[in-house]
Amino acid sequence: MVEKLTLSDAEWRKRLTPEEYDVLRQHGTEYPGTGCFLGTKDPGTYVCAGCRNPLFKAGVKFESGTGWPSFTQTIGPDAVAEIQDRSHGMVRTEVRCARCDGHLGHVFPDGPPPTGLRYCMNSVAMKHVPEGQPIELVKK
């Protein structure tokens, strides 16, 4: 089980860029095709931009053609929380960081094998840690 990181709204505003705050704390979405991780293939780990919780290994990233970086599976069962999202007149599954509750994107059941899932994430909600570098969680 992941230890939760809970901060005040003022503290999140101090720690995050305006773009990160909009997506992670206000459930915003970056425009399709604009994210910095859309075409990257560098080995390593994608972590939450808010708290550095490990989310996805680079090896499960794939080109979905949707305009957002997509992954077939999370790094482990405690990496993210999945919540039903009924906004915008549709039913989707929102993906949040299990540690800080930051909005990351959505997961859809139209991905490739072996999982059939497409974790469609906002680049601004993540950081890339190159293979072999330590991952340091953000502390209070």
From TrEMBL:
Co-factor(s): Zn(2+)
One GO CC annotation: cytoplasm
Broad EC category: oxidoreductase
EC number: 1.8.4.12
A Pfam entry, by short name: SelR
Signal peptide boundaries: none
GO biological process, one term: response to oxidative stress
SUPFAM superfamilies: Mss4-like
Active site: C120
Molecular functions per Gene Ontology: peptide-methionine (R)-S-oxide reductase activity; zinc ion binding
Stretches assigned to the MsrB domain: 9-131
Cofactor: binding comment: Binds 1 zinc ion per subunit. The zinc ion is important for the structural integrity of the protein.
Catalytic activity reported: L-methionyl-[protein] + [thioredoxin]-disulfide + H2O = L-methionyl-(R)-S-oxide-[protein] + [thioredoxin]-dithiol
Superkingdom per UniProt: Bacteria
Keywords: Metal-binding, Oxidoreductase, Zinc
InterPro entries (alphabetical): Met_Sox_Rdtase_MsrB, Met_Sox_Rdtase_MsrB_dom, Mss4-like_sf
Record-stated family: Belongs to the MsrB Met sulfoxide reductase family.
HAMAP family listed in its UniProt record: MsrB
Name used for this protein in its record: Peptide methionine sulfoxide reductase MsrB
Source organism phylogeny: Bacteria, Pseudomonadati, Myxococcota, Myxococcia, Myxococcales
Gene, per the UniProt record: msrB
